[in-house]
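User: Predict structure, ligand uracil.
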Amino acid sequence: MEKEAVRQLNAHITTCTRCRLSLTRTNAVPGEGPVPSELFFIGEAPGRNEDLTGRPFVGRAGTVLEDLLATIGLQRDRVFITSIVKCRPPENRVPKKDEIAACEGYLQKQIDLAFPRILIPMGRLASELVFSHFGLPNIPIGRIHGQPVHAGPSCRDLTIFPVYHPAAVTHNPPLKGTIFEDVQALGRIIEENGLRFRQVK
Ligand code: URA
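Assistant: Predicted complex:
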């Protein structure tokens, strides 16, 4: 049932023509992961490798993300991974507001289907979108990274845990330690909440 809903949603995403990014993409990149999925990671936009393969986080940022997940005993196929826009912006430019808006409904449906306990927006744009989506005031990523924020009393048990984008490490190496510490904090939250996606070794 969920699988069919995911298949249908992905079919919409991969044929979407709602914004100009559809004109320059090779493949749309819906995202991937189990449904339901307790952990839901949200990046910014596909890059070159993602555009060529149709899979999220398969380039350098993906390696950084996988290495970080491994430090808390997680494998990528245990979590849902997507981005706020599903098509690569030309030359990897920052996605524009109208492109993000055109894609927001897809992200919302993915969150509904995956029904996560923790949303992990990665980077400034994903963090801004998730906070505004849940009616929360925007707090710059430099201040809010690594801190759990409850998505509000009217919401079910949902925590937002913003982190820097894994690609930031490649542009700004000193952030490596910060992202590492934040992911360790995420690991402790997972532990405390007895979430079930840890691989049994
Ligand atoms: N960066 C993102 O934000 N998303 C991807 O899929 C790849 C790199």
